[in-house]
Amino acid sequence: MSGQELSGLRKWIQAADLKGRHLEVGTAAGGTLCFMMKCFTEESRPQFTVVDTMSYFDDQMNIVKKNLAQNGLDSQLIDFRVMPSVTAFTHAEAAREQFDFILVDASHKIRHVMEDLRWLRLLNTGGIACFHDYAIRFKGVCWPIDRFLRRNPHFSRVGLEDSLLCIRKNAEASQTEVTAFDRVWALLWSPILQLDLSLQKRLKPKQASTTN
Ligand SMILES: C[S@@+](CC[C@H](N)C(=O)[O-])C[C@H]1O[C@@H](n2cnc3c(N)ncnc32)[C@H](O)[C@@H]1O
Fold first, then answer.
1. What is the mean pLDDT of residues 103-125?
2. What is the distance between the alpha carbons of residues 186 and 168, in angstroms, rounded to a whole number?
3. Is the model's pLDDT at 48 over the cut of 50?
4. pTM (two decimals)
5. pLDDT of 182-206, one tens digit each?
6. Quick one: which of 182, 181, 133, 127 has its CA closest to 155?
7. Alpha-carbon distance 137 to 149, whole Å?
8. 70-74, 105-109, 177-181, 198-202 — which is least confidently predicted?
9. What is the extent of the structural domain holding 11?
10. pLDDT confidence of residue 139
């Protein structure tokens, strides 16, 4: 994350001062995880849960643990759930888990982001959620979040720092926040956005060579 995003994250986390479980969906090497944990003193730090397939690069889990140790953080205190986000969500929902804070930064594919928005059902009222790469160039991230916010007015925008969006849950939902129809909508857009992305990639070097 950029310096601006990290400053925003610290500002929102510290202003909210939430005591309940904090969740990160997608951790890579755990850099933002360490940063978030260090927003709290040892005594005031809430329980952290991390969901990640840990197959982003070789030896990912050990690299995360090493990173935590280098930051003076005990990896034993973190509840790691090494599985796809969809599976982790199914377990968490069945166990009626609740979170005060959720950071979503996993797959940027539209259908996965729509699935990840289901985690917000488990966010406590007054809790906050952040989404990374909320930027026009990431349609797969922007579109499902914009649709979600239009359809769920009990969530409000707290702020945007660079491409990090923060939203708050102001009330309990009267109905399911992400419907089957929302998921079908995302599935239908998925191949179109995939094509858009590959066209952009193909056009990029050509544009560069014509300007040279
Ligand atoms: C962009 S990186 C996360 C960066 C991290 N939040 C940071 O700020 O340093 C994406 C991470 O999401 C994980 N990921 C991608 N798709 C996932 C899925 N469907 N379920 C769980 N984890 C996933 C990858 O393994 C990777 O570690």
1. 97
2. 23
3. yes
4. 0.93
5. 999 999 999 999 998 888 888 876 5
6. 127
7. 19
8. 198-202
9. 3-211
10. 95
Q: Whose CA is nearest to atom 8 of ligand 1?
A: 32
Top mutation candidate among 52, 54, 68 for ligand 1, by most atoms within 8 Å of CB:
52
Residue 141: Cβ within 10 Å count = 26
What is the number of domains present in the chain? 1
Residue nearest to atom 22 of ligand 1 (CA): 52
CA 98 / ligand 1 centre spacing (Å):
21
CA of 141 to the centre of ligand 1 (A): 13
Distances (CA, A) of 2 to 73, 151, 164, 175, 212: 22, 30, 9, 36, 30
Q: What is the CATH number of the domain that holds 130?
A: 3.40.50.150
141 lines ligand 1 (CB under 6 A): no
